[in-house]
Specification:
By secondary structure, this protein is an alpha/beta fold. It has helices spanning about 1-30, 50-65, 100-105, 120-130, 160-165, 185-190, 200-215, 225-260, and strands at about 35-45, 75-80, 85-90, 140-145, 170-175, 190-195. It is globular. About 30% of the residues are buried. Keywords: Signal.
Amino acid sequence: MARLGQWSLGLLIGVLLIVCKGEDLMMNEEATEPDNLELVFLIHTSPKINKTNFQHYLNFMKDVIEKTNIESGKVKVAAVTYRKNGKIAFNFNKFKTKDTLLKGLGKIKAAKSKFGNLASGLNITKTKLFGQKKLPPNTMRWVIILTDANSGLEQDQIAAMAQQLTSVGVMIRAYGIGLKDLSQLQLATTDVKGLKTYLELRNATKDVVRMLDTFQQKDQPKGSFTQGDWIPSSGNKLFGQLFNSFSSISSSKKKKNKMQD
């Protein structure tokens, strides 16, 4: 029985150490919450778009920008258009204030093209905006694709070009407007939203803004996690497994001791 007590105490200490380690992981997560945002709009328009419908594109981007704190220097925005090839509309360093950025967005024209090339747009975004640099500390990188047609060029390169972006910590979201088939966009990302009309971009804005609000939340202390936020996902599960394991071993030892007695 003394041995069982010592063994039980040792296991309990081990479990406590694991829980403490979990708290350390939680603190590390607090320390690495993103402070900086690098956001790219990747835009494609087909011949079917008109001035009114393209305004919905612009309104989407402007509404998102309205919710960003550009002046802080922690939020950088760029835009890329693609037809047969990708082209930088403006880079991260072009606009330093919200007003100038909004004016810059307003100057983007609908580049109508029968031959979209999403792979080229993704490639330009990677090579000209993010380069070979890995994800900087405390930074979130996000590319939002806006398109109303599937690409007819280099379709077999889409997945590879998207992988180049994700390899440097970029998250990709795609909005396909009026597309019956979203499988091509799904080559670039699993985060694909299908919209029936250009008007639905207004509701899509709300979704993006919610994410930005969470990212830029300043009223709560940074890293306002509680122990309960961390433990249910990993700690409780692990603790439960160890506890069940400990219980079954203890029961078998008790049975064995009784038989020996």
